[in-house]
Write a structure and sequence with these properties.
Radius of gyration: 15 Å
Low-confidence stretches: none
Structural class: mainly beta
Strand order of the largest sheet: 3-2-5-6
Distance between the termini: 22 Å
Order of helices and strands: HEEEEEEEH
Length: 149
């Protein structure tokens, strides 16, 4: 199953990229009140990029069977540590080149958060295709893609 990322608006993407590049991101906090005892997730994104600059990554987490999610800004190579309610989630990562406005990598993985435990998650990101971008719903309101490939 592929994530449904069509809720991620263009303005939201720009703000997330800028936040990742402005310095150390603030600690990620899950915005919803917990329904169950929480745990901690340590999320890393693996990408073939060998660029020695700060590369922003937009990390999204969706509760299973939800049509919306929460987005976080991270930097490629850093690990995001997020405290969140127990449950099943879908995590997606988008590796972005803000200078060229391109999507350099995308990947996703399922995640189960267990109460009072730390769950590691590595999301492998690969080069996206145009077909995949449209399937994921990464489009502006006028139907054009949010990113160039």
């Amino acid at each position: 199953m592929e994530p449904q990322l069509n809720w991620l608006a263009a303005a939201h993407v720009d703000r997330l990229v800028n936040r990742a590049l402005d310095g150390l991101p603030s600690p990620a906090v899950w915005p919803h009140p917990p329904k169950a005892a929480g745990g901690t997730v340590e999320i890393s994104v693996r990408h073939h990029s060998t660029v020695k600059v700060r590369t922003p990554v937009i990390l999204t987490l969706q509760e299973e069977n939800s049509r919306t999610g929460t987005a976080f800004s991270v930097v490629l190579g850093h690990t995001a540590r997020i405290a969140m309610p127990g449950g099943r989630y879908f995590g997606a990562a988008m590796v972005v080149n803000p200078a060229r406005r391109t999507l350099d990598g995308i990947g996703w993985s399922r995640l189960a958060v267990n109460a009072h435990r730390t769950s590691p998650l590595v999301i492998p990101a690969q080069r996206p295709s145009a077909q995949l971008i449209f399937q994921l719903g990464l489009r502006k309101a006028d139907g054009t893609p949010l990113f160039r490939l």
